[in-house]
Amino acid sequence: MEALAYLTTGCAEPEFERRLYELSTAVTGLAKALEAHSAWEDEAFFPMLSRCLDIPNQPTLATTLWMLEKEHALTFAFFRSFFEQAAAGGGQRSFVARGGAKDQLILACRLVRGHLSMEEAAIVPLTEPFCGSICDCFHIHDNGLEVY
Questions:
Q1: CB-neighbour burial class of residue 48 (10 A; exposed 0-12, middle 13-18, buried 19+)
Q2: Both ends of the chain: CA-CA distance in Å?
Q3: Region for 137 from its dihedrals, namely left if φ exceeds 0, alpha if ψ lies in -120 to 50, beta otherwise
Q4: Most buried residue, 73, 88, 120, 137, by CB count within 10 Å?
């Protein structure tokens, strides 16, 4: 966020372009990590959770999972908006005048933080009764997580 604040407070144009590139690269990394996280949830974790917890018969849990899914979509929309505004060109004055890029990125980051907190509060406790079976389904190693 420091880099984002710096971009909107005034700096020399070459420094602005460098900082905007660095910020865009970091945001790209965050978006890719969230995309991988979302794919893992959709393809492996939520189907397994659904089988173990009979989610269709638990409306509150089904709604929570639906909300988590919608948060992913909204976060990606905010990321796209940031990238569009950052790529629009025109230098620092135009970037600051458009103003929305900063707000879009802040909203995306807040959604990611809230999403992860919600997962910890709502989803992780549900896995405790059958943690052994979950652990048996996943194999953790240095390069990440494999699902069996």
A1: middle
A2: 38
A3: alpha
A4: 137
